[in-house]
Design a protein that fits this description.
Helix content: 10-25%
Distance between the termini: 26 Å
Number of strands: 12
CATH topology: Metallo-beta-lactamase, Chain A
Strand content: 15-25%
CATH architecture: 4-Layer Sandwich
Low-confidence stretches: none
Mean pLDDT: 97
Bound molecules: zinc ion
Strand order of the largest sheet: 1-2-3-4-5-6-7
Shape: globular
Structural class: alpha/beta
């Protein structure tokens, strides 16, 4: 199963909090496809990688076209599937920020937030994080030509140590894959785990100002395909207040 969001853009994974098209723990996994190549945003939890690959096949995109997997951050529901997807598609280059690279490659359960998440019952008690090496260490504002567009990494520590949002520009459309950093209506995701800080949001949220974002596509919950900048601007506004912004 998959969901087509617009031409060449698909949701190929997403668990019980989202579209329910892959393992229940998976964040939303997006596939952008161009004439020559394609890329993925995030890898899901790793609990059923084959299902995500099956969904990619169903879109008609040949997996051999996928050049990059851009990681928003290493938490289990986003980074746990990277190793398994690379095993199925060894040609994929995994791209991440330096802070998230360390966690993906060797983060402890404590650092990955898994100790607390398991206590809460959010992960199976026997879930073991599949560590995986990173091929490309990103720099803030680094961009790539991919899937017939340009994708730019915007570092936004806050939800996690070094979360990355990805701005994808194609056919004059500007799409922000915001990971867990920003949801609709300016909602953020500060969590009670290692690496999650309001300080990070305060220092970095302004980087999303003036990006003229059309589609705001987070890793969970709702998305919007139009007027995304209004939602991001609301987050910037709320982070300027002394009270905590709304959180999910
Ligand atoms: Zn997360």
């Amino acid at each position: 199963m998959y969901i087509r969001l617009e031409q060449g853009l698909y949701m190929v994974g997403g668990g019980s909090g989202g579209p329910g098209i892959s393992n229940y723990k998976d964040c939303n996994v997006y596939l952008a496809e161009g004439e020559q190549d394609a890329f993925l945003i995030d890898g899901g939890s790793g609990l059923d990688n084959q299902l995500i690959l099956d969904n990619i096949f169903e879109t008609g995109c040949k997996p051999e076209k996928i050049r990059y997997l851009f990681l928003t951050h290493a938490h289990g529901d986003h980074g746990g599937g990277v190793k398994g997807l690379k095993a199925l598609m060894p040609w994929i280059k995994v791209a991440a920020s330096l802070g998230e690279k360390r966690l993906l490659e060797e983060g402890s359960e404590e650092e990955l937030g898994l100790v607390a998440a398991k206590k809460k019952g959010a992960y199976p008690a026997d879930y073991v994080y599949p560590h995986c090496s990173v091929d490309l260490v990103l720099e803030d504002e680094q961009d790539f030509l991919a899937a017939d567009g340009r994708i730019t990494a915007i570092f936004l520590p806050g939800h996690s140590v070094e979360s990355v949002c990805y701005l994808f520009e194609k056919n004059k459309r500007r799409i922000l894959f915001s990971g867990d950093s920003v949801y609709l209506n300016g909602t953020l995701s500060l969590i009670n785990c290692y690496g999650s800080t309001m300080e990070g949001y305060r220092r970095n949220i302004h980087k999303l100002a003036g990006r003229r974002i059309d589609a705001l596509i987070p890793s969970h919950y709702r998305m919007t395909l139009t007027k995304g900048q209004e939602h991001v601007d609301r987050a910037i506004e709320l982070v300027g207040y002394s009270s905590l912004p709304p959180m999910m």
